[in-house]
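FORM 12-B: Structure-to-Sequence Request
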């Protein structure tokens, strides 16, 4: 049984950081270098960086459980305008293809609607073809593309997708 809920502080956030480390090393190896994966985990998904996002940048982390098994997570951020940012959307590989992603996305749309937002947007690596297909299936449309310099010689080469609520 899938249970989606907001992440409480330690130790749950620590477990999300461990899961992020596992999933990122599995899913991004064919898209970006190992050096970039490690760099991005440290910058965006370490316990310290996630704590900072929650405390100072208005992010919320959301955990996905299959019974007691923490198997996925999301991060969201309401913007100051009419947009809701879906920053992270991850499911461990053994749990994919079972309908859980659509429950996760429904949860995000509900949150955004409750926050009075008009759209949800996200960024996705241009070579992440499965995630791109999934977002299109859920009704997202490409509105832009962006190359973001994240330091140490690395860039994120992304599409921006938007869904109108
Ligand atoms: C992105 C992610 C959470 C999606 O979860 P998933 O379990 O793989 O998604 P599903 O297979 O359930 O697909 C979701 C929907 O898209 C549809 N879909 C999947 N692949 C498709 C394709 N190639 N063409 C059309 N529709 C497709 C599915 O049928 C499903 O629709 P349904 O729920 O109505 O049946 C998961 O793949 C993941 O964690 N990937 C690695 C991390 C990642 O890349 N995250 C995104 C970073 S931006």
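FORM 12-B RESPONSE
SEQUENCE OUT:
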């Amino acid at each position: 049984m899938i249970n989606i809920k907001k992440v409480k502080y330690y130790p749950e956030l620590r477990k999300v950081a461990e899961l992020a480390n596992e999933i990122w090393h599995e899913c991004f190896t064919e898209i970006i270098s190992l050096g970039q994966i490690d760099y991005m985990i440290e910058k965006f998904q370490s316990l310290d960086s996630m704590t900072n996002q929650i405390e100072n940048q208005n992010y919320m982390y959301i955990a996905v459980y299959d019974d007691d098994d923490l198997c996925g997570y999301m991060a969201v951020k309401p913007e100051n305008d009419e947009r809701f940012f879906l920053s992270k959307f991850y499911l461990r590989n053994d749990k994919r293809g079972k309908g859980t992603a659509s429950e996760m996305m429904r949860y995000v749309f509900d949150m955004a609607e409750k926050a009075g937002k008009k759209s949800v947007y996200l960024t996705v690596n241009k070579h992440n073809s499965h995630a791109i297909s999934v977002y299109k299936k859920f009704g997202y449309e490409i509105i832009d593309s962006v190359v973001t310099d994240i330091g140490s010689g690395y860039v994120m080469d992304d599409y921006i997708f938007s869904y109108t609520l």
